[in-house]
TrEMBL record:
Pfam families: Cob_adeno_trans (PF01923)
Protein source organism: Gottfriedia solisilvae
Pathway field: Cofactor biosynthesis; adenosylcobalamin biosynthesis; adenosylcobalamin from cob(II)yrinate a,c-diamide: step 2/7
EC main group: transferase
Keywords associated with the record: ATP-binding, Cobalamin biosynthesis, Nucleotide-binding, Transferase
Name recorded for this polypeptide: Corrinoid adenosyltransferase
The keyword Transport is annotated on this UniProt entry: no
Length: 189
């Protein structure tokens, strides 16, 4: 099987419904999501212990959902069903809450890092934010399936919480940004 088609040799690619230039914002958006997916796969190689099996499985599920998001952004033809759902967003919110409850209270911003897996997850978080910014720009020009945007917004928060829970499980303390002010309230008022 040949994986090259030569159809993109003139700088265009196919969406579901039309052809566009390869630097089209829609292509940039789902390409950045693909970049996040690759980073997630790399982080997973450091989560192979029994202590992190549940985190590994969660990330594998997210990899499938990232494909869903990218695929949904590639759809411009009417009548094609979307795969990204609001339930996926709600599932991320539950995990974020669970992970944040399992970590020490946080008052200041933290430096990205700690364990190798957490550092890579922080990279995934930053690239997810870029994907989100791309999608916001795209939404100003074209209609998209809104749950994709919501999912990306929650996903960056999920990655933040996940990096913290990884470090917590590995007994690695997060390093607070030393010149930062208190930005998170630890009391529940």
């Amino acid at each position: 099987m040949k994986i090259y088609t030569k159809t993109g040799d003139k700088g265009q690619t196919s969406l579901v419904g039309k052809r566009v230039d390869k630097d089209h914002l829609r292509v940039e958006s789902y390409g950045t999501i693909d970049e996040v997916n690759t980073i997630v796969g790399y982080a997973m190689t450091y989560l192979d212990s029994e202590d992190t099996k549940d985190l590994y499985e969660s990330l594998q599920k997210i990899q499938h959902e990232l494909f869903d998001c990218g695929g949904d952004l590639a759809v411009v033809k009417e009548g094609i069903p979307f795969k990204t759902t609001e339930k996926m967003v709600e599932d991320l919110e539950k995990l974020i809450d669970e992970y944040m409850d399992a970590t020490p209270p946080l008052e200041k911003f933290i430096l990205p890092g700690g364990s190798k897996a957490a550092a890579i997850i922080h990279q995934a978080r930053a690239v997810t934010r870029r994907a989100e910014r791309n999608v916001v720009s795209l939404m100003k020009q074209e209609t998209i399936h809104v749950p994709v945007f919501l999912y990306l917004n929650r996903l960056s928060d999920y990655f933040f919480a996940l990096a913290r829970v990884i470090n917590t499980r590995l007994n690695i303390k997060d390093i607070e940004y030393e010149r930062g002010a208190i930005v998170f309230r630890t009391d529940k008022k």
